[in-house]
Write a structure and sequence with these properties.
The chain is an alpha/beta fold and 306 residues long. The protein has helices at 19-33, 38-50, 58-73, 91-103, 107-110, 120-133, 167-178, 198-221, 231-240, 255-265, and strands spanning 80-85, 111-117, 136-141, 153-159, 181-193, 268-282, 285-297, 300-301, 304-305. The protein is 43% helix and 23% strand. Strands 3-2-1-4-5-7-6 form a seven-stranded mixed sheet, sandwiched between helices. The protein has a two-stranded antiparallel sheet with strand order 8-9. 41% of the residues are buried. Bound molecules: S-adenosylmethionine.
Length: 306
């Protein structure tokens, strides 16, 4: 495990992620491995490196994951199976690895991380992160809707994946992924809930991405960030993908909708919270966001979640 400095797994802000390195690797790998969605992957990686903050719920996730992994770590010698269902990049793998690394010396060594994604590029970048930090890691390419159970999972994280899944498929997908849980395993569902004024939110998202594009352009033009593709090609990708999340098929509109999805999936709600953030993307330009953060279990025994 790397252990010193801001890119240490122990650092609660970076969780060991090197966002400049990720931006370079996505720029190198995505054009070959994800020809149809390279713009999306490269934009996401560059925006995490250069743009306004994105992973608002990381501190809350660290708290929830910490409790779940600590409970499993209390059982001697147990391998702790952690599954990230839909990755995009190293964010969730790093968050889980950070938590395990901070718990006790031996806990990280007892964790096995499995990452599923339909795209190869995030899996390759996650695999490199795992080698760098000495993680026991397995990558599973393929569509989650068809994926076989990767293991009996102690912890499953679904972070922003449901917005990619049409509403009609969400109950089946959540039930399926939940069926991968080991007894007393836990599934964390974290996903944006659109604001009541979703038209204003969508416009705010474009302003946020425009600010992030500008910051990325500055980093490229000044040579602070060097990618394998030219600045011109990269900026073309950023421009083309400025609105690429608009019209995702599975956005949530209320906490009640998420509660109904959970009930219909057959999983048991252990906690369900709606979190809100407000942040500036420019002078006087405030953006609001809300997310659902749920912890789910497999079923009830004697009135208790198991
Ligand atoms: C999970 S989301 C984004 C998560 C990220 N933590 C965030 O907050 O932006 C995007 C990822 O999910 C993957 N994805 C979307 N739909 C999928 C599906 N049906 N099966 C597998 N992976 C999927 C995409 O390839 C992408 O890498």
């Amino acid at each position: 495990m790397t252990s010193l400095g801001a890119l240490s797994l122990l650092d609660p802000v970076s969780c060991g992620e090197d966002l400049a390195h990720n931006a370079r690797r996505f720029s190198e790998l995505a054009p070959d491995h994800c020809a149809g969605c390279a713009d999306y992957h490269i934009r996401s990686a560059l925006h995490r490196y250069a743009g306004p903050p994105k992973l608002f719920d990381r501190p809350e996730l660290i708290r929830l994951i910490g409790k779940i992994i600590a409970d499993k770590a209390a059982l001697p010698d147990k391998t702790i199976e952690i599954v990230v269902a839909g990755a995009a990049d190293t964010a969730m793998l790093a968050t889980c690895a950070h938590v395990a690394a901070t718990l006790r010396v031996d806990v990280l060594k007892r964790c096995r991380f499995t990452v599923l994604d339909r795209c190869e590029t995030p899996l390759l970048v996650c695999a490199e992160f795992a080698v760098w930090h000495g993680l026991d890691f397995d990558a599973r390419p393929g569509d989650l809707i068809l994926a076989a159970q990767p293991c009996a999972a102690d912890l499953i994280i679904t972070h922003s994946i449901f917005r990619f899944i049409p509403h009609a498929d969400q109950v089946a997908l959540l039930g399926r992924i939940g069926s991968w849980l080991a007894p007393a395993g836990r599934l964390i569902l974290s996903n944006r809930i659109l604001l009541d004024d979703d038209g204003a939110e969508a416009k705010g998202e474009i302003r946020k991405r425009t600010a992030a594009n500008k910051a990325a352009e500055e980093a490229l033009v000044k040579g602070v960030l060097q990618l394998s593709e030219s600045a011109k090609t990269t900026l073309g990708r950023l421009k083309r993908s400025i609105a690429d999340a608009a019209g995702r098929p599975g956005e949530f509109r209320s906490l009640g909708e998420v509660g109904a999805l959970i009930r219909q999936s057959g999983l048991v709600e252990i906690s369900l919270d709606c979190l809100a953030w407000e942040f500036a993307i420019g002078p006087g330009d405030l953006i609001r966001r809300r997310r659902v953060l749920a912890v789910l279990g497999r079923g009830m025994v004697n009135g208790l979640a198991r």
